[in-house]
Amino acid sequence: MNIIKKNIKKIGTVLLGLVILAGCGKEKVAETKKINIGITQIIEHAALDAVAEGFKEALADGGYTEDKVNIEMQNAQGDFGVAQTIASSYVQDKKDLVLAISTPSAQAMYNATKEIPILISAVTSPEAVGLTGDNVTGTSDMAPVDRQVQLIKKLLPESKTIGVVYNTSEENSQILVKQLKLESEKNGYKVIEKGITNINEIGQALDVLLKDVDVLYTPTDNLVVSATPLVLSKANQQNIPVIGCIKDQVVQGALATETLDYKKLGYQTGEMAVRVLNGEKPKDIPIETQKDTKLLINKEAVKRLNIDLPQELKDRAEMM
Fold first, then answer.
1. What is the pLDDT of residues 252-271, one digit of tens each?
2. Burial class of 90 by CB neighbour count within 10 A (0 to 12, 13 to 18, 19+)
3. 107-146-179 Cα angle (round to 5)
4. By C-alpha distance, which of 32, 34, 39, 35 is closest to 90?
């Protein structure tokens, strides 16, 4: 009888040990089962940074907090080759999901994988640049070019010629310049354009361009936006008003813009990412846009350029 009791006790001890080991195994699995997300961004500037900020905020609000998600963020510093290297590294790391901010970064990521879910944002026209695969969804930041041209008409009624400088390597910029020409033609404006390929060419292009225009328009061109201080300095020397494309440009001194809220755009993209992480397929989630825009006006620029601000614009503008 004592032998039986001893054997039963031993069996119980072994079983208890197995249960404890099983529990420890589960804890280890739970600890290592974080979701791995990559963020790739073509260049550093306020609008793209705001997209990333909004995206991460939406993830957290959707239940994907820091204890559940590892986020790696890389910036290509304006170099498409580096963007391709980033994309390849994310594929090798087998990321669970990638946020690609900007058209070049989205193109590089899509070229690298047709399997990993890609959430795009700050992409002007996804269809036009071939971002329509089964693993792609996200948001477009197509600028309200029609409203921006109307803004020129209301703020600068005597202007006749619009200048634009843009990076010929960015397909999104080519699309926006084409749209600018269409809207300008409707409103009787002449457009003079200067194409560049790197940041070192911007100053020289502006020196030539600004002599022949009444107003300078800057599209959501990542290279040009990243050089906003130089653009504004050159324009101010010639007393040429600048119609920007994002809030940060107006804060820095551009006259005005009608623009999107890029943090909200990032948040909107993050909400879509949560849906994908919860099991929806990217191909079943249509690419979205942001319908609401903001009118932003720099009051110092208004004063410096001696502009008589129409009451209609005063009533709805956020003065910077």
1. 999 999 999 999 999 999 99
2. buried
3. 45
4. 39
